[in-house]
Amino acid sequence: MSQSISVSWSSGEVSFPQAIVEPVEKLSNYDLVLRCQTEHRPDRLAFAELLRRYQSHVDKILYHLAPDWQDRADLAQEVWIRVYRNIKRVNEPVKFRGWLTRIATNLFYDELRKRKRVAQPLSLDAPRMMDDGEMDWEIAADEPGPVEDLSTREFYEQLHIAIADLPEVFRTTIVLREIEGMAYEEIAEITNVSLGTVKSRIARARQRLQSQLQNYLDS
């Protein structure tokens, strides 16, 4: 038995069910960026979802670049203001994360130049995200005793000083590589330099750190 469909012609129009709009929580990052680019202003819900997904990423970058700055929350807010104003310039939405990282990194160095002082580049207590095994900053110990604990703290203090002494471009690549775990190609795109330059900076930064900390690494 066929089912009849009742249509009212009184208004001269036929009403069809509205298309189902997929919740932003189920959209890919690519689609969220595209939705933010379709109108004059970024879609409010799509932008809020991007912020929810990447807020911790921005906070982590700023934490490692400027652990002693008390206004990191203000800097994070400025990052998202810049994202809101410039998201239409993202030519490749699939690379939104790298674009966002570049904004956060550039903001840090803008502020660093304004303050005219050297900030501590990263937290030495944070876990290292390395996948190539080229450098290990951790000292293995199940339950270090007083002597080992003192040596560990002294090592990290010296490491902290050595990293702070690195040129800014070296510190940036170290943070993006060792802390963020980014590929060399991503770092090259973010820092707007060639792949060879990225590899050279990281190698030179590691060489300088190892040279300054050789006594601790040998012990």
Amino-to-carboxy terminus distance? 87 Å
Q: Which residues sit in consecutive blocks of at least 5 with pLDDT less than 50?
A: 4-19, 118-150
Q: What is the helix/strand order?
A: HHHHHHHHH
Q: Give the number of DSSP strands.
A: 0
- How much is the radius of gyration in Å? 24 Å
Give the rounded overall mean pLDDT: 76
Question: What does the largest sheet look like?
Answer: none
Structural class: mainly alpha
- DSSP strand content: under 5%
Instruction: State the helical fraction.
Output: 55-70%
Principal-axis shape: elongated
Q: Give the helix tally.
A: 9
Q: If you had to describe this structure to a student in words, what would you say it looks like?
A:
The protein has helices at residues 29-38, 44-65, 72-86, 96-115, 146-164, 168-179, 184-191, 195-212, 214-218. With 219 residues, the chain is an all-alpha fold. The protein is elongated, with a radius of gyration of 24 Å. Mean pLDDT is 76; it is low at 4-19 and 118-150.
Secondary structure layout plus pairing:
Layout: H1 29-38, H2 44-65, H3 72-86, H4 96-115, H5 146-164, H6 168-179, H7 184-191, H8 195-212, H9 214-218
Helix pairs in contact: 1-2, 2-3, 2-4, 3-4, 4-7, 5-8, 6-8, 7-8
Question: What attributes characterize this protein structure?
Answer:
219 residues; 9 helices; elongated
What's the quick description here?
With 219 residues, this protein is mostly helical.
